[in-house]
């Protein structure tokens, strides 16, 4: 892979991550999908967004697939 393409890809990924950090809390279903694991007990809290991670991975894979064509 050429250096220029690698830098463009890294920049695109950084922009997407930045947008998710900035606007992620405003998306009502993100992180609250069925399948996301949340355990809350006295003095202990554990959260693993399994379904959200799979969904975001799928979307990112489709986007990258379109760029590689």
What does this molecule look like?
The chain is α+β, with helices and mostly antiparallel strands and 69 residues long. The protein has one domain (3-68). Helices cover 58% and strands 14% of the residues. It is built from two helices and two strands. Strand 1 and strand 2 (44-48) form a beta hairpin. It is elongated and about 50 Å long. The relative contact order is 0.10.
Q: Would you spell out the secondary-structure blueprint of this structure?
A:
Layout: H1 3-23, E1 37-41, E2 44-48, H2 50-68
- Total number of domains: 1
Can you tell me the overall shape? elongated
Kindly report the spatial arrangement of strands forming the biggest sheet.
Answer: 1-2
Please give the share of residues in helix. Answer: 55-70%
Number of strands: 2
Roughly how many Å is the radius of gyration?
A: 16 Å
* Uncertain residue segments: none
Alpha-beta content class: alpha+beta
* Oligomerization category of the chains in this entry: single chain
Strand content: 5-15%
Major beta sheet summary = 2 strands, antiparallel
Mean pLDDT metric: 83
SS field, number of helical segments: 2
